[in-house]
Design goal:
By secondary structure, the protein is of the alpha/beta class. The protein has six helices and five strands; from the N terminus they run βααβαβααββα. Helices cover about 25% and strands about 15% of the residues. The chain has a five-stranded mixed sheet with strand order 3-2-1-4-5.
């Protein structure tokens, strides 16, 4: 994988020493990925540190798109790219939409038409007019490490098939997050 400064890092280094939640996004212009990563940004660093877990997002564009995407989403955890999609292919992440588009991510707020229009607008008005990765590539989520241990694997079937973030956090032993804007009710 490649970091925001263009340095190559072995994928294994992300989970070799400690458990890591690794989320592969479709591409940085995908509105569903943007909204999912906006919610990942809400996971407090303290929750991750307490559980000794890393949170990593991997995209499949040029590393030049990492900093603008982090700025756009408010994401401050680790982010890398796999520009040749080698890890995507190795993990068996599919290309194209599955036939079950009724699956709905709880983290996607936009409807398909409005989200697609916003994605296209961001592509057209971006500093370099490019589509920042293969638009047909699907993503997924894993919990790995330490070492070669795989605790969880979810391969997205389509753009709306993200695993709920709290499910992944729970499986990794991290406190969950209230993603709604509703106040939490505490029973005493």
């Amino acid at each position: 994988v490649v970091d925001a400064d263009g340095r190559s890092i072995p994928f294994e280094a992300l989970y070799g020493e400690q458990k890591a939640i690794v989320v592969f996004v479709r591409n940085f212009l995908c509105y569903t990925c943007k909204e999912y990563v906006e919610d990942l940004a809400k996971v407090p660093k303290a929750f991750l540190q307490e559980a000794n877990v890393r949170l990593v997002v991997i995209g499949q564009s040029s590393y030049h798109h990492i900093k603008p995407f982090c700025s756009l989403t408010g994401y401050t955890h680790e982010m890398y790219v796999d520009p040749q999609r080698e890890i995507y292919k190795t993990l068996g992440m599919k290309r194209g939409e599955g036939n079950n588009v009724s699956v709905r991510s709880p983290h996607v707020k936009s409807n398909m038409l409005l989200g697609s229009i916003r994605s296209t607008w961001r592509a057209m008005t971006g500093p370099a007019f490019d589509f920042q990765g293969d638009p047909a590539q699907q993503g997924g989520a894993l919990i790995l490490g330490p070492g070669n241990e795989v605790h969880f694997l979810h391969l997205d079937k389509n753009r709306l098939d993200h695993v709920p973030i709290n499910t992944v956090l729970q499986l990794a032993g991290v406190k969950t997050v209230n993603f709604t804007n509703k106040p939490q009710i505490i029973h005493i």
